Amino acid sequence: MATKGILVNAVAPAVIESEMLARVTDQVKACMISKIPMGRVGRPEEVAELVRFLASDRLSFSTGFCYDI
C-alpha cells in the first residue's frame, strides 16, 4: 500500500497509567517498572502524541512498523 501513499503502522502501548494499571498490586507494578529503561510508567498523553504524529502529514516514510511505547 506504500506505493499508493497508504502507510500502515501499529502502536503497542506497554505499561501506561490507566484504570487497568490501578487494579495491579504495588508489588506487580514495581516489578514492571523495574524492567522499563525510563524507570516509570507511560502517560496516556504520551501515547496520544505518538498516535497524532503517526496520523499526521509529518510522517511520510515509515510503514509496516510497530511502535512500542
Commentary on this structure:
With 69 residues, the chain is of the alpha+beta class. The protein contains 3 helices and 2 strands; from the N terminus they run βαααβ. The chain has helices at residues 19-22, 26-34, 44-54; strands spanning 10-12, 66-68. The radius of gyration is 15 Å and the shape is elongated. The mean pLDDT is 96.
What can be said about this structure in brief?
This protein has 69 residues and is an alpha+beta fold. The chain has one domain. Helices cover 35% and strands 9% of the residues.
Question: Which descriptors would you attach to this protein?
Answer:
single chain; 69 residues; alpha+beta; two-stranded parallel sheet; 3 helices; 9% strand; elongated
Low-confidence residue ranges: none
Largest sheet: 2 strands, parallel
Helix-and-strand structural type = alpha+beta
Distance between the termini: 25 Å
Share of residues in helices: 25-40%
The strand count comes to 2
Roughly what is the average pLDDT, rounded to an integer? 96
The DSSP helix count reads 3
Elements, N to C (H/E):
EHHHE
What is the total number of structural domains? 1
Which word captures the global form? elongated
Radius of gyration: 15 Å
What proportion of the residues form beta strands (DSSP E)?
Answer: 5-15%
Q: How do the strands of the widest beta sheet line up side by side?
A: 1-2
